[in-house]
């Protein structure tokens, strides 16, 4: 498939998924509730933020699978932990004015599907999901 170079120059702010459409939790949210939100929104990715909208970390369904396999706690105890204790506290991020090409390169190199997006001031504003990009691309072709 041919991808127009102008398409790759687009800014990712055109593809951001709003915070109301995926799991966003605070640092005191228990893992079970985070998992329920991930299932509800059908995106295996959750962002942990504070009251000032600073990104504290992310957790994926893959992270949860690995935790279940390596953690010695009973599942019921694990699910009652605060999500923040199990999330990646220094996730790879994207900025709203990053080019689509730069973001796609990150997806490819890191083998990931989602990235949290920060605005110019470093505040969390949403995520970019590979499916959103692919859907837009398929509609254009």
Structural summary, described in words:
- This protein has 141 residues and is an alpha/beta fold.
- The chain has a single domain, classed as CBS-domain (Roll), CATH 3.10.580.
- Helices cover 38% and strands 21% of the residues.
- The protein has a four-stranded mixed beta sheet with strand order 1-7-6-5. The protein has a three-stranded mixed beta sheet with strand order 2-3-4.
- Helix 5 links the parallel strand 5 and strand 6.
CATH architecture designation: Roll
Radius of gyration from the alpha-carbon trace, in angstroms: 16 Å
Helical run tally: 6
By helix and strand content, what is the structural category?
A: alpha/beta
Strand order, largest beta sheet: 1-7-6-5
Average residue pLDDT: 91
CATH topology: CBS-domain
Helix content: 25-40%
By CATH reckoning, the class would read Alpha Beta
Per DSSP, what share of the residues sits in E-state strands of 2 or more residues?
15-25%
Low-confidence stretches: none
| Count of individual beta strands | 7
CATH superfamily: CBS-domain
Distance between the termini: 9 Å
- Topology as H/E string? HEEHEEHHEHEEH
What general outline do the C-alpha atoms trace?
Answer: elongated
């Amino acid at each position: 498939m041919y991808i127009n170079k102008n398409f790759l120059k687009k800014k990712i702010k055109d593809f951001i998924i709003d915070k109301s459409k995926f799991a966003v939790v605070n640092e005191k949210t228990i893992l079970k509730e985070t998992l329920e939100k991930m299932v509800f929104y059908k995106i295996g990715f959750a962002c942990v933020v504070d009251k000032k909208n600073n990104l504290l970390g992310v957790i994926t369904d893959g992270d949860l699978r690995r935790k279940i396999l390596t953690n010695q706690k009973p599942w019921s105890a694990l699910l009652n932990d605060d999500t923040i204790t199990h999330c990646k506290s220094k996730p790879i991020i994207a900025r709203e004015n990053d080019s689509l090409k730069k973001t796609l390169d990150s997806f490819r190199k890191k083998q990931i599907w989602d990235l949290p997006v920060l605005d110019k001031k470093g505040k969390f504003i949403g995520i970019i999901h590979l499916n959103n990009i692919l859907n837009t691309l398929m509609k254009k072709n």
